[in-house]
Design a protein that fits this description.
The complex is a heterodimer of chains A (293) and B (278). With 293 residues, chain A is mostly helical. Chain A has helices spanning 3-37, 56-61, 65-96, 103-116, 118-140, 155-181, 185-193, 198-209, 211-226, 230-235, 247-257, 261-289; strands spanning 40-41, 51-52. In chain A, strands 1-2 form a two-stranded antiparallel ribbon. In chain A, helix 3 (65-96) runs antiparallel to helix 9 and helix 9 packs antiparallel against helix 12. The longest helix of chain A is centred in the first third of the chain and has 35 residues, at 3-37. The radius of gyration of chain A is 24 Å and the shape is globular. Chain B has helices spanning 2-20, 22-30, 35-40, 52-61, 63-95, 98-110, 115-133, 141-164, 170-177, 182-193, 195-211, 214-219, 228-239, 243-277. Chain B contains 14 helices and no strands. With 278 residues, chain B is an all-alpha fold. The chains are: A mainly alpha (293), B mainly alpha (278).
């Protein structure tokens, strides 16, 4: 090895090693020991033994009713959220790209909730559901719609979808705006000349050309939705009666609440596998369908 | 006719936006009301602006200390993330070796791992390191900074990587011929060119780190180390019933975010767009 080459390797290590060492300690090593823990039964107390149980933790998952219910709720929540976040986000994007004078101001306002952060948003909406909803319900007389959703086992999940949409719609809007602005103006002009109606233009030109933006938004909302924790914690805390204990919270409670470190970690590994599977499939599927420009 | 319909569309747009943000308005106005007023009408404007709940909330949340902790963790983490990930990304792009590709792919792949998968083993590791090696990672702000760097490395390297690929190599070659070291080339020539993507990396990380709750809640135990999300969480745990106080507390936590948004609005929207699309 000549001197110049050795010098280059020296520089390479100097530039990359600090970050890579930190990254390895914080992400790679915990990931590996996490897989190891998933095959043991352990209560998290160092003095107590870790008992090797093989695949048992993973098999128990399929008969754990609280976990199965939580899985189903998470799927339901994610599906509803993906739809509602994308519909609202796309509507906002179409609104603020319509050349209105107040469009920029509106865009700024729509994006605001995303910045505040899930934990605080949940607390804000706790009050809105508790006080404003009941107030409006009494005032308008629509008490079957406007009541405290958080106390109702069926509606609490919708409340979560509602708040999550409020948080994420502005975020997804930004992605759609970029997509809409990327559509060449001549294409729109040409279709006008050809006599296409507004609706036809939207369906035949705007939407198909928005497929890349759609891929990204779907990907983002799917993984954010599946991983929701902060809003879940501050808005409902998993209640009433575990009716909104979603996946991430179930794992947290299993490990740090019930002290089932090994079993909880098995759930956490499964969580990773599911997240990786959906996001990869989704990206693969939508990439295939994208329209080439 | 056309003008009228244009005007009504403007009004419609702003009404939609106002309704959208009404929860923040509700929190804000109710934070000034007396308890009596709050129960009479939630939506009405307060008769007198009283700040008594603010002083009380500040005290109970230990707001200034939480604010300083959040500031420290966010600023220091972001500075390190920018320095370390831009250097790493540059080397990975320019060396073009197979090992660089493997490192880059590994970084990208780990972006799929949810925090919940890592939290328990990470805490085992971190408390182990603190207890056995005496390196204070657990229950310290600098330890949290260290973990933030690790968790946000992948996204930041990824963003820098994409940007650096588009910079022509001829610039660097000229400097290398002039005898500048790699270090000099990077900091004098490359890093200034990276400014737009550095802004994006900073914005994304500031938002993620400032609002982060779960990681700080696991690693910070002492009361005086609490960041803003942590102090809000414990505040709500203790004083849920007193909504006036709670709303003053919430408003306090939103104010820094709003100020940040007003100052850096252009960069935030641009940064979020780029961060999401890439």
């Amino acid at each position: 090895m000549d001197v110049a080459n050795r010098k280059n390797i020296g520089w390479y290590l100097l530039f990359t090693l600090p970050l890579l060492i930190i990254f390895t300690i914080i992400v790679i090593i915990p990931f590996i020991i996490g897989i190891y823990y998933a095959f043991f039964e352990w209560d998290g107390i160092n003095a107590n033994p870790k008992v090797f149980v093989g695949m048992e933790n993973f098999l128990t998952l399929f008969s754990d009713e609280r976990f199965l219910k939580s899985t189903w709720l998470t799927v339901l929540f994610t599906v509803l959220s993906v739809i509602s976040v994308n519909v609202v986000g796309l509507a906002f994007a179409l609104l603020v790209t319509s050349k209105l004078k107040l469009a920029n101001l509106a865009r700024t306002m729509f994006f605001m909730p995303y910045l505040i952060g899930g934990l605080i948003l949940g607390y804000i909406w706790q009050f809105v559901f508790l006080d404003v909803f009941t107030f409006v319900g009494e005032a308008v007389g629509l008490e079957s719609i406007f009541f405290n959703w958080l106390l109702n086992e069926n509606f609490a999940l919708f409340a979560l979808v509602f708040v999550f949409t409020w948080q994420m719609a502005g975020y997804v809007m930004i992605v759609y705006i970029a997509g809409i602005q990327g559509i060449p103006g001549e294409l729109i002009e040409a279709s006008k000349v050809d006599g296409a109606s507004k609706w036809q233009r939207l369906m035949r030109i705007t939407f198909p050309l928005l497929m890349p933006a759609f891929t990204i938004s779907l990907f983002l909302t799917l993984s954010y939705g599946f991983k929701i924790y902060d809003v879940n914690l501050s808005l409902t805390g998993g209640g009433p009666a575990n009716a909104t204990e979603l996946f991430a919270m179930n794992i947290y409670n299993e490990i740090f609440g019930y002290g089932n470190y090994g079993y909880g970690q098995a759930k956490a590994i499964l969580f990773f596998v599911i997240i990786a599977a959906i996001t990869l499939t989704q990206v693969y599927l939508t990439k295939k369908r994208e329209v080439d420009m | 006719m056309r003008i009228l319909s244009k005007w009504s569309r403007e009004i419609l747009l702003i009404v939609v936006a106002l309704i959208f943000l009404s929860p923040i308005y509700i929190i804000f106005i109710n934070s000034f009301k007396t308890r009596q007023e709050l129960y009479e009408n939630t939506l009405a404007f307060p008769e007198v602006f009283g700040f008594q709940f603010y002083t009380e909330a500040m005290e109970k949340m230990n707001f200034f200390s939480a604010f300083l902790n959040s500031m420290f963790v966010t600023v220091v983490s972001v500075v390190f993330i920018v320095i370390l990930s831009s250097m790493t990304a540059w080397m990975l792009v320019r060396s073009g070796s197979r090992i660089s590709t493997i490192i880059f792919m590994t970084l990208i792949a780990t972006m799929l791992i949810p925090f919940q998968t890592l939290m328990m083993p990470l805490m085992q590791l971190v408390t182990g390191i603190t207890g056995n090696l005496g390196i204070p990672l657990y229950n310290t702000l600098s330890g949290l900074v260290f973990m933030n760097i690790g968790f946000h490395a992948a996204l930041s390297v990824f963003l820098y990587h994409g940007f650096i690929k588009s910079i022509p190599i001829s610039l660097e070659e000229a400097a290398t011929i002039d005898g500048a070291s790699k270090f000099g080339v990077f900091w004098r020539i490359i890093f200034p060119i990276l400014t737009p993507i550095t802004a994006t990396v900073m914005i994304l990380n500031v938002i993620l780190i400032w609002n982060d709750f779960l990681l700080p809640s696991l690693t910070l135990v002492d009361k005086e180390l609490r960041t803003i999300p942590l102090s809000v969480f414990y505040f709500f745990g203790e004083f849920t019933i007193e909504w006036n106080l709670a709303m003053a507390g919430l408003t306090l936590t939103i104010i820094p975010v709003v100020i940040f948004y007003i100052i850096a609005q252009k960069y935030i929207i641009k940064g979020i767009g780029e961060g999401a699309i890439k």
